[in-house]
Structure formats: structure tokens, C-alpha cells
Amino acid sequence: MKDSDAKCLGNTEKQVEAGGQNNPQTRSQNVSAITRRQFLESAAGASILAGIPASALTRESKGEVPRRTLGRTGEKISALGLGGYHIGKRELPESESIRIIRTAIDNGISFLDNCWDYNGGESEIRMGKALHDGYRQRAFLMTKIDGRDKKSAKAQIEESLRRLETDRIDLLQFHEIIRMDDPERIFASGGGMEAALEAKKAGKVRFIGFTGHKSPDIHLKMLDTARKHQFRFDAVQMPLNVMDAHYNSFEKKVLPVLVKDDVGVLGMKPMGDQIILESKTVTAVECLHYAMNLPTSVVITGCDSIQILNQALGAARNFRSMKSNEVVALLAKTAQAAQSGKYEPYKTTHNFDGTYQNPQWLG
Question: pTM here?
Fold first, then answer.
């Protein structure tokens, strides 16, 4: 259900980097994920490298949140995005949610994540209120819908527009593509894609993408189904983190395809909704930096307090491209913990599948 991380950087100084007894040099040969350099030199080779804009690999200026290009759209967005789920939580006062959103924008975060089903619509309602007073013009606004047929998709788009108090959504995404039949349902005659394309033609939607956290094979099927219908997505969202790199990996299977085709890459769950931090193998900052070091357009993380937001902003401002040996060492620390998918339950259980719990949202 949640496409971003809660408590993105809380108590970083208390997190233990276990695994220090492991020598990264002796374990590097066992690391299953490709390093950044290997990624750029693999598979599609020069064509992949050519597809990554310089702004996606380096910071633009000291002390600022980096900005990157969203695939072939040409849109410049912040390399760090604010997750939408956590700003709508019941225990968080609405006034504090609005303050978090506006503080994020004031400090260089332009990419805002949301979804029609987050907190029964409360996340979109609060974000809509926060975007008054000129903030909407400073934000790149993304939200997601669950509808697989045209009728439900159209209704959810209209409801999201009302809640967000806007006449356009910058990026509309089909949410939780986690079933093998989701692509066919969306692209079928009378499917959800018809509603999205009509909304785009009417100027209510600028770009179209999809998101999912279950299986890279399902993502690849969605991309293949789109090609068969002569359609190319503008952006794709998926888990990209130090555990994914080892287990049923979106980084290995999907990321090279997106980069080659110049599709915007939206990284989510950099800390696996905090669960990765429970492994005691990496810190929150390491998690964010790893995801930002990949050719992502934006890394989305959830922040439910100003303190957490400020820590996330610091991580983004201090980001530097990681050296290949640093990547290898980081992956070596997480390799053993990642093997069974224990710290990625969004892949292995239904605990994160909002549409599994509420199939009526699909239409």
C-alpha cells in the first residue's frame, strides 16, 4: 500500500553497521548485484551511458538538493522526493503535515508523491491544502490510481484532482502493478489506460507512468504490453535499495531497460519502510545514498516530522557519487541478510498490497 518510507532517517546515529567483521574485499566476489560502474558498462553499454543525463549522476551545486531530468520528458525534478503516505497518517496533525510539505518545497524538494487510496484520501486532501499560496507552481505533483477499468480509473482521477485542488496532475501512475494480469486489464478495450489518455488529452494529466513493488517480471510484462500497444511510459516506480540489489532485483532486471529507453526512474522504499534498517547492516543515510547513486530521476522517501525531513535534506545535499569500491563494500555488508527477502516483505507477502486487501479499488 505504501510506496515510500516512514521515518526516513530517524536516530541514524543509533543504527549499528553490523557486519564490520566481514572484509569487503574478500566478499566482493559474492555480491550478486552489479556496481554502478558495472551497470554503466554492462548490457546496453554505450547506449545506456548515453541515456543518463549528467545531472542524474552528479550534484548541480554545493549545498542544494540535486536536480535531475525525468527521462525523456525533459522535466527537472529534485533527486529527493517527499512520500505521500506518511503526511496523511491519523496520528499526525493536519497542520504539521502542511508544514512538512511546505518546508520540503521551501528547501528544494519539488517532487511530491501521493496516491488516491492513501489514508482514505486524507493524504491528497492535506497535500491539496498545502499547495495553496503559490506552492502548487513550485511542485511537480504525482499521484496514483488503482482503477484497472476505464470507469473506475476516470472516477479516481477526478477525485484526486478535487482533493489535490488542482486542474492538472504532472504525473499520473497506475498503482500496485503486482499481478500478472494487471497489464492486460489496463490496456484492454475499456481499460484504465483509456481514461488516463483522455485525461491527458484534456490537459488534466501531463505524463503517465506505473508503480509496483512485487516482482520485476511483472514490471517487464507491463513495459512489454505497453510496447505492443504502441505506448511508452514516461516514468516507472519501483523498489531500489541495498536489499533489492541481491534478491529478485528490480535494479538488475528493470533498471537497465528503463535507462536504455530513457524512461524516468522513480526509486522507492530506499529503506524498505524502515525494515531494512532492522537488519543492522546499514544506516539510513547509506540507504538513501545507495539509491541516489543509481541512475534514478528521484528517490522517494516518507517523512512524518520536520526533524526527519531535515535529516533527509541533509543526506541529499551531502550526496556525492559513490566510488565503485564503496558500492561493493556496502553490498557486501547486506548480501547475507538479503538472501531470503526477509527485509523486503513487500515482495514476499501481501502486507503492503493495499489492492489485495481492497480489491474493489481495482474496479
Answer: 0.85
